[in-house]
Amino acid sequence: MAKTQNVLFDVQGPRARRLTLLFNVAGVLLIAALAWVVLGALAEQGQLDADRWTPLLTARAWENFLLPGLWETLRAALLAVALSIAFGLVFGLGRLSQLAPVRFVCTVVVEFFRAVPVLVMMIFFYLGIGRAGLVEPANVPFWAVVLGLMFYNGSVIAELIRSGVHQLPKGQREAGLVIGLTPSRSLRMIELPQALTAMLPSMVSQFVVILKDTALGYIITYPELLASARRLGSGDGNILQTLFVVALVFVLINYLLTLLAAWLSRFLSFRTAGRTKPAEGPMAAEETTV
After folding, report:
1. Which of the residues 2, 92, 166, 258 could staple to 158 if both were Cys, CB 3.0 to 4.6 A apart?
2. Where is the ABC transmembrane type-1 domain (predicted)?
3. Is the separation of the CB atoms in 210 and 76 below 8 Å?
4. Which domains are delineated in the chain?
């Protein structure tokens, strides 16, 4: 029995491993030196003084700025996630339709919104909704953020659904046709549930993107977490410290979502005929041949 590995490069020998270790140590030392220089410069400018950090530990900072901003961020992100899933299901199924005109229209819509930057769509909806008077003026930034996130990320989810169905074994559709289902019913009843299960970790990772992109809303005056932090930091004269705390909040939330995606990838890997798509980069696989 022979065992082979599929990797992106040849297995390193002793000399290559020593060189890799040497470069890794040199890289760590370089990063440490840069961090020391940066921290020293910040200390000289007084950016590390306690009086610049203590305002962030007060109830005023969190109750009046950070927590309301975090709520606005989560509110927009949650609604954008729900609408993106609905958009992705509709147009993902449309791209898998048996009707060529439906496939063509859905493909054009998905590819268009995947190509347009999120910020451009937010600004477009901000100006369009505001001039059309479709909602109250105070709610225009909120809906501009939500719609921009929905169209972009919904298009990405539609492509995930399409690729998830194509990754399933061909026997899934053939089995549905054998028991008398039409291709469309086989898609809805057999293939789509398995594709959603297989692509769920990747979709959770896309939700991380939605959460992060809500920060673009500060450009169109949406009072999300970043905008609230900028107001707080500008008022207290500690903008650097405030943005650092906000960055930690984003990192914590996104890290929890990433852990959820990794857990779903492991948990669902044995519950679908299609292989779950990893939430992160490609991994080397091992194959056993006789």
Report:
1. 92
2. 70-261
3. no
4. 53-268 (1.10.3720.10)
